[in-house]
Amino acid sequence: MTHSGDPWTLSGMKDNNRQHEAPVRNFLSTLVTMPGEHARFMNMLSMLEHMGSRKIMVSQMDRMEELDLDTLQHLSEEARHAFFFKRQAERIAGKSLNGWVDENTTQRISAMMYFGRLDAGISKQVPADKAYGWVSLIIELRACWLYHIYHEVLEASDVQLSLKSLIAEEDKHLAEMFEMVGEDVELMRDLSAYETDLFGKLWGKISSALDIAQAA
User: Fold this and answer.
1) What is the pLDDT of residues 18-32, one digit of tens each?
2) Ordered domains of the chain (ranges, CATH)
3) Which of 27, 150, 194, 202 lies 20 to 30 A from 158 at CA?
4) Is the pTM above the cut of 0.90?
């Protein structure tokens, strides 16, 4: 089924996140000038991408007879994104960043709680067989929103790093998930608003961590 409109507008993501755009852009512009903190931030993104790929895998374990190529590709690409951010984090840090621990991951616990609450909150509001599509759609909305801003900041900085290929894959995932479950616009708006609230709380903690690092 082809849905009219685009997920950015229909979900309310554009309007609901105008308040966050300038603070996030300013944060990232400062972050990329601080290699140590930048590496920790990218390691957090690596962790979240890993959690996303694991979520896809777990959600499909009882659907072995239905698992299709598109879902396997989605799983493999999210795992590759986790690898991409981990590798770039280590390159910028100039050392190995094994695992995801407090010392090498920005707001590790808060980021894990954000993902867990998002997954649980959405799963309570949708049928079990639709949870994969809905959770993925809302996560892809946030990932695309953040990565587009991050890419623009990187392009204007001295950091040799491009997110262009990664963004192309995330944009494709967003379109696929929108095609899968996006017919219920009211539910999409409710779930996106729920995620935006969780994101705002997480970003507040991430910003505070950078303030502390700058003051140290």
Assistant:
1) 999 999 999 999 999
2) 7-215 (1.20.910)
3) 202
4) yes
